[in-house]
Each structure stands twice: as C-alpha cells, then as structure tokens.
Amino acid sequence: MAKHRTFTAPKTNIARALLGATIVASAFAGPANTASADTATGVAAATAAKHPATAIAAHKAGGASTDHSEETKVNVTADQVLALAKAQVGTSENASGGGTKFQQWYAASQRAAETVARDGGNRAAYLNAAWCSMFVSWVGEQTGARPQVGWDAYTVAHAKWFAANHRFGTLAKPGAVVFFSWSGSKSISDIQHVGFVVKDNQNGTISTVEGNTGNGKVEERIRPKSQVVGYGYPEYAG
Question: Which residues does the UniProt record annotate as the domain Peptidase C51 (predicted)?
C-alpha cells in the first residue's frame, strides 16, 4: 500500500549521469521497463528510477522557478478548481503505485522534461512515483489555472515556487494549495504532502481534497492545522 509516498533526495548526484541522449531520444515512449534498465545500468539507474524528482537542485537559489511569466491572470475560480478536484475522488493507483492519469499526464508534459533536468532520473520514472503534487498540477492544467496553481512533481519545489512568487502564507483559504509535514515542522524543506483546501473548519482542522492519500487514492480528508507547513495562494478569478 502506498500512503503519502514522498520523493527523497539521493545521497549523490549519480542520477545526473543518466541524463543525456536517452532522455532526449526516448524520454517518453510509454511505460518503461525500469527493472531491465536498472539491470543494464546498475545502481545508478536504480537510484534515478527511484528518485525521479528530488532535492538535488531544488534547494539551490530557493529551489523554485521565479519565472514571472507564469504569473498571469486566469479566468478560473476556486470553486471550479475544487469541483474538478472533488470529481476525481476515488481514483486509485495500481499495485505498482502507478497507473493514474495524473502520473501519465505529468510524465508526458513539458514540465517533466524540466524537472528531470533539474532533479535527475527520467520521465518514465514518474509513472510510478508519488503523485500528490502531480494531482494538484493536473487539476490546475485541466481547469486552466496552472499559471496560478503551478506544476511540479516534488512538493518542496512546488511550495518554493509559491514562496518565490510571494504567494505563500499561513491562512487557510478555499482553493489554496496546502503543504503538509507530518512531524509538524514549519520548514518548507520538510514538506511531505500536498493537496487543496476545501474549507477552514474553524476548529483547528481543515477539509481538503488530496491525491496519493490513504491507500493511494484521491480522497477528501480532514487534517489538523498542526501538520500544515503553509499554503500557496493561486490568484483565482472572482
């Protein structure tokens, strides 16, 4: 069972060595047989496949893009984003931790090419990787809110993007992107999970909709605010 699977930084930059012609020529030709790739390339390939999005470069210069071309207005409301997110409730990963449309979309996206270049690994590895941030990114893309919701597969980098654009804080708002650390840490570098805020329950908890939670599903949850590192604020219409 996959419960809140998170990306972990490899101890070396071995994954970087796997980039190059293979990624350029056959980055996404459908689900790859990572087991045979690991056998062929040894420990380095295994490391890269296991850690498709990590903190190798994400902690450098704030770890998130400060490209303000992403800072464009969108004609999308928080209610529209939450409606689509809630419509995905019940979507489940397969026994390998993959098989969701969120992972498939991300692996094929331009953003995957960018995060592979940043973090190492390969596109195919996203197909069975932790997908909570991919879920948030997918909802943003499908609703047209992606320039405000952001997109990443790595929760820490996703939060740093909001922070770099001065849209990260501690107030729960409907449609905000909420970042969690199960230890109660308030450090962005300790973030382990992400979802959308549905509402502040005004009792020390928030209602959320999240991907890759429970037994690897999209679910609505109630979370204690004590586990929240902070919130990213998309600038929605209305």
Answer: 128-212
d(CA 225, CA 104): 31
Residue 2 lies in a domain: no
Residue range(s) defining the domain that contains residue 50 = 14-232
Domain annotation covers residue 120: yes
Phi first, then psi, for residue 165 (nearest 5°) are -100, 15
In a domain, 1, yes or no: no
Q: What predicted TM-score, i.e. pTM, was given to this entire model? A: 0.75
Residue 237 falls inside a structural domain: no
**Mutual angle of helices 132-143 and 101-108, in 10-degree steps:** 80
8 A C-beta contact, residue 98 and residue 134:
no
Q: How many domains does the chain have?
A: 1
172-204 per-position pLDDT tens digit: 999 999 999 999 999 999 999 999 999 999 999
Classify residue 19 by its DSSP letter.
Answer: -
What is the per-residue pLDDT across 145-174, written as a single tens digit (0 to 9) for each?
999 999 999 999 999 999 999 999 999 999
Angle at 116 between CA 88 and CA 130, to 5 degrees: 35
- Please tell me whether residue 222 adopts helix, strand or coil conformation: strand
